[in-house]
Amino acid sequence: MSFGDVRGHERIISVLRAAMERGRLPHALLFAGPPGIGKRMTAVRVAAALLCREAGEGDYCGSCRVCRRVLAGTHPDVTVLRREEGKRFIVIGGDDDAPGGNVIHSVRVLRELAWRRPFEGDRKAFVVDEAERMTPEAQDAFLKTLEEPPPGTWFFVVCSRPEALKETIRSRCTLFRFYPLPSEEVEEIAKREAPDGTADEEAELAAAFSAGSPGAALASLREGLAGETRWFLDFLGSTPGRQPLELSEELLEHVHDTVGKSPLEPVRERLAFFLGVFAQAASPGAKGRCGKHLPAWLSALEPGAAADVSEAIIGAASDLKANIRPLLVLDNLFSRITAHVRRG
């Protein structure tokens, strides 16, 4: 298959394939980059190439029994370590640890499985998803396995914030940095993989405000947030000449109508989503990525003014996380950007 379904990371794929062809693939690889851009997908496909016996070294056929199970997440020799649903962290272990299955939630289970013989063949792989979520104790335990990797075993450490990993872990991994995809590639993926019934316009909008992440664009479409993005951009277009408190109340009323007034967490999450859209609209290069969707006053901002607006958005996002009342956060934000809105 030559990794044809992994988009935007051709250079990394080329390096990984060459290493596999020579039998020199490092046993610990750190895939670092923003969420949703294909790091875990790449790790799973490299694991398929390691285990597949139908294609040559450095590739996978995608159709044999081994490949089908690896890609479906059911092969016993490819295990994913990720945080348990509803939990914030990957832990070292718990009283109810029970090794087995293709998805595990503790480093203790990973270590036990790593030292077992492969169920089939002579190779196995572990994908540590959101590795930055490992607790310090879990990182220490994982490090012990990295220091003496079992033969025929590969570890793919998938991480959005590599600085959250201990230096001792990073130093034992070969780093591959993944970067956001061009918006046209994200748009193509969004249109191809969007839920049934998704309009092309929705896919285009989701891609434009995905920050180069196909995963983010598809999540937005699955959660029905493309319409919310459109509403918010129209709302931003109405800001010139209006008072900060009026804008704040209208935005908050819309959020309350959409997700309810309580509990507060969904309100904060939706406001954080809107602030993320706003941040992308005010960021450098926004005209190239999503120009036709931008309000006129945002498109007209000079670089210095755009930087001021971006700083105000970052401050609002920080205040929101600090549990400051949403109305105060919004009023402060719109008060700070009023001068730039009027100039625009």
Would you kindly provide a written description of the structure presented here, covering whatever features stand out?
The longest helix is centred in the C-terminal third of the chain and has 19 residues. This protein has a 6-stranded parallel sheet with strand order 3-2-4-5-1-6. The protein is elongated, with a radius of gyration of 23 Å. With 344 residues, the protein is α/β, with parallel strands linked by helices. The model has no long low-confidence stretch (mean pLDDT 92). It is 52% helix and 8% strand. The protein folds into 2 domains: 168 residues, P-loop containing nucleotide triphosphate hydrolases (Rossmann fold, 3-Layer(aba) Sandwich); 119 residues.
